[in-house]
Write a structure and sequence with these properties.
Layout (H helix, E strand, L loop, with lengths): L1 H10 L8 H23 L1 H12 L14 E2 L11 E2 L8 H16 L11 H6 L4
Antiparallel strand pairs: 1-2
Length: 129
């Protein structure tokens, strides 16, 4: 432990440097979460319209009959291909699509040179290490 602290002091490394911003932000984020949670539970329809009208007067307001939260872009192919964002996703297809898109984007951003050596497989699977 003493050797580790001496090594950190020699190279100017602060072990709490990564945690300090998070410790400052967490109480603020918790407070914002509980404030928004309590306000949104009171009357969400009226609140969304009020916030939209006061903060963004230059943007078109939500329609009076509510926001269309249905992803019915592909219902012309099959009526069963209807996803409502107002309901929990029973098939978990949206997180799967997001994960596949993230993986494809990560693979496309890899350098074109193929890494060699011991860590070649680890670089291909997780390029940030």
């Amino acid at each position: 432990m003493v050797a580790m602290q001496a090594l950190q002091k020699e190279y100017g490394i602060n072990p709490l440097a990564g945690c300090l911003p998070m410790l400052i932000q967490l109480p603020v984020l918790y407070g914002m979460f509980f404030a928004f949670n309590s306000v949104l539970r009171s009357n969400p329809e009226k609140l969304v319209n009020t916030v939209n009208a006061s903060l963004y007067p230059f943007i078109a307001h939500f329609p009076k009959n509510g926001v269309n939260v249905n992803l019915n872009w592909f219902t012309w192919l099959s009526p069963a291909w209807h996803i409502s964002l107002a309901q929990p996703d029973p098939t978990f297809i949206l997180p799967i699509i997001a994960a596949v898109a993230t993986f494809v984007q990560m693979r496309m951003s890899l350098p074109k040179t193929v890494p060699t050596g011991n860590n070649a497989k680890s670089v291909l699977l997780c390029p940030t290490t």
